[in-house]
Design goal:
Blueprint (H helix, E strand, L loop, with lengths): L35 E9 L4 E10 L18 H18 L5 E6 L7 H4 L1 H10 L6 E6 L7 H13 L3 E7 L7 H5 L4 E4 L1 H4 L6 H17 L2 E5 L4 H9 L4 E3 L7 E2 L14
Parallel strand pairs: 2-3, 3-4, 4-5, 5-6, 6-7, 7-8
Antiparallel strand pairs: 1-2, 1-8, 1-9
Helix pairs in contact: 1-3
């Protein structure tokens, strides 16, 4: 939902219930505001193609996510989460997206995974977007009230054939402990680990450790927030094949931006 330069979470406070009431996203519930999406590519440099586009929240005139998220409250959080999914699928279909669409979701806005996914599935059918091309990202720095609840969500999403990812990995409170609870298909390295990693032996050691764990668990790794050729070269040499960041393309407002493949050419 949020790009790497304005990364925030729709904060879930400790008092927020892990399991919201069943009528929280009932038919007819509406948000008191509107929003749209931008899309940023996640590129597979091994095959020189776009692996996915992440859906990022924007205002109707292109305003950043920081103008929308303050409008999200405990009373409308569940409807907001559902609306984000539907909007991302609708635009992905309208733009004839040929690959995965990656959608952030709020675990604490899901009371029962099988029920709360219905609006997304209905939107995919209505707009003609293949459900097997959906990725759901968990923001790791959102404080999780109930890990068992999150595990049940991941199990259900995997059962239905969706890919799952942990976003901002390395930025949150739980770190590798989260991987001990469940194993997603993908983790996205937080940009704080990626930034200037070419000149930081400590970050290099941390990322190598994460890569070793992910390799053993058969988890794909995406380096997000990559902005310089030096960062890319170092991370590519470590074995990472999926990248997201301004080095390749900024987010495109309601469009699929052109990828700057020249970043892969020899310096």
């Amino acid at each position: 939902m949020l790009d790497s330069r304005s990364r925030q979470t729709a904060a879930v406070t400790p008092e927020t219930p892990a399991v919201p009431p069943c009528n929280a996203c009932r038919p007819g519930s509406e948000l008191p505001f509107d929003f749209t999406m931008a899309f940023q590519p996640i590129v597979d440099v091994r095959e020189r193609k776009v692996f996915a586009y992440e859906a990022l929240i924007r205002g109707l005139k292109g305003e950043g996510a920081e103008t929308i998220l303050p409008l999200v409250t405990t009373n409308n959080r569940y409807v907001f989460d559902q609306s984000c999914r539907v909007k991302a699928v609708e635009l992905a279909s309208r733009l004839a997206m040929p690959c995965f669409v990656s959608i952030n979701f709020l675990p604490n806005a899901v009371y029962q995974a099988a029920t709360c996914i219905r609006a997304t599935l209905e939107a995919a059918r209505r707009f003609g977007f293949p459900t097997e091309r959906l990725i759901f990202e968990i923001t790791e720095n959102e404080e999780l009230v109930d890990k068992e609840h999150l595990k049940s969500i991941i199990r259900e999403y995997k059962r239905q054939g969706f890919k799952t990812a942990i976003d901002d990995f390395g930025a949150g409170y739980s770190g590798l402990n989260l991987l001990a609870e469940f194993q997603p298909d993908i983790i996205k390295l937080d940009m704080a680990l990626v930034r200037a990693i070419d000149a930081d032996p400590v970050r290099q050691a941390i990322v190598r450790g994460i890569l070793g764990v992910c390799q053993a668990l058969h988890i794909e790794v995406i380096a997000e927030g990559v902005e310089t050729r030096a960062e890319f070269d170092l991370l590519r040499a470590m074995g990472i094949g999926l990248f997201q960041g301004f080095l390749f393309a900024p987010p495109g407002f309601e469009c699929l931006p052109e990828v700057g493949w020249s970043a892969l050419d020899p310096a």
